[in-house]
Amino acid sequence: MKLKIFVTLKPGVLDPQGKAIHHALESLGFAGVNDVRAGKLIELEVADATTDAQIDEMCRQLLANTVIENYRVERA
Amino acid sequence: MKLKIFVTLKPGVLDPQGKAIHHALESLGFAGVNDVRAGKLIELEVADATTDAQIDEMCRQLLANTVIENYRVERA
Fold first, then answer.
1. In chain A, what are the domain boundaries?
2. Are B37 and A43 an interchain contact pair (Cβ–Cβ within 8 Å)?
């Protein structure tokens, strides 16, 4: 089973990487960019028997820092 | 207009970050993980007038390294 985990910073958490990308886009002449947020995409190939609870545990223990990050799981 | 850009390593390109995550998951006792690939998710808030060609240029010039990475754009 293929999984995609999207890890994004919670609203209000400062995002220096996103700010740097925003600045770089403007320096390159791209106008009309209002906001940039940088996150992570983790693609997992797991055994079909893996339960939702196990996937949730992986996210909470390792893949996302739930203090500052949200995560979303998508089955592909 | 909100955009999500998914940047993933091309197949065959070595992914040390994914390997490290895979190893860490196994160390934590999660069995049944066969493969892990790490990628990036960049969320952009751009002017509605931004064209597909401009978005493509942003990806090619800055957001993705097209030598080793693929990217996919999703309008949200």
1. 2-75
2. yes
The Cα of A67 is separated from the nearest Cα of chain B by a number of Å equal to: 19
Write the pLDDT tens digit of every residue in B26-75. Answer: 999 999 999 999 999 999 999 999 999 999 999 999 999 999 999 999 99
Interface check B73 vs A, CB under 8 A: no
Contacts of B33 in chain A (CB under 8 A): 44-47
Q: What are the DSSP calls for B9-67, one per residue?
A: EPTTS--HHHHHHHHHHHHTT---EEEEEEEEEEEEEE-TT--HHHHHHHIIIII--TT
- pLDDT at residue B11, as a whole number: 95
Q: Which residues of chain A have pLDDT under 50?
A: none
The answer to whether residue B76 scores a pLDDT higher than 80 is: no
B17 burial level (CB within 10 Å; 0-12, 13-18, 19+): middle
Question: Top-level CATH class of A2-75?
Answer: alpha beta
